[in-house]
Amino acid sequence: MEWTGARYADKPTVEAETWIDAPPERVWAIVADVELMPTMSNELESVQWCDGATGPAVGHRFVGRSRHDALGEWATTSHVVECEEPRVLAWAVHDPENPTALWRFTLEPAEGGTRLCEWMQMGPARSGLSHAIDRMPDKEQKIVFVRMREFENSIIHTLAAIKKRAEG
Questions:
Q1: In terms of Cα–Cα distance, which of 134, 123, 114, 71 is closest to 94?
Q2: What does the pLDDT look like over 55-102, one tens digit per residue?
Q3: Who's near 69: CB < 8 A, 6+ residues apart?
Q4: Against a cut of 0.85, is the pTM above it?
Q5: Are 45 and 23 in contact (CB under 8 A)?
């Protein structure tokens, strides 16, 4: 990731992709199993569907519990905002109308396998990172950049884990 000088209000984004030697349906089964994601994430420690849901559909919610050495532990409720099996799964963190973050997986058939892309957007609503920015407003661009690099590394790690599982 290159320095962009982005501020939180800019709603910075990051994405990465990989090609997987497996059909989209097999990759979808892994991506759509959000309760499996903690085994493939650096920060996410657990996920639980809410209200009796057992899988993704627009409007379904899940609670994710995360941990970060510098930011501590927290829980967020995410709302599925896009779900087109086996092509797109996206969720908004906290409020679907004004999320603290948006996350999206996109799957495309490609070269006899699947091109899997994971994308995320920070903001626009305030998040835990906003408190760090409030304490050090002169360092906002650096704080945002460092966090976006962490997200990029996490996405790359998650995509590699999904690839290994789908091809295994």
A1: 123
A2: 999 999 999 999 988 888 999 999 999 999 999 999 999 999 999 999
A3: none
A4: yes
A5: no
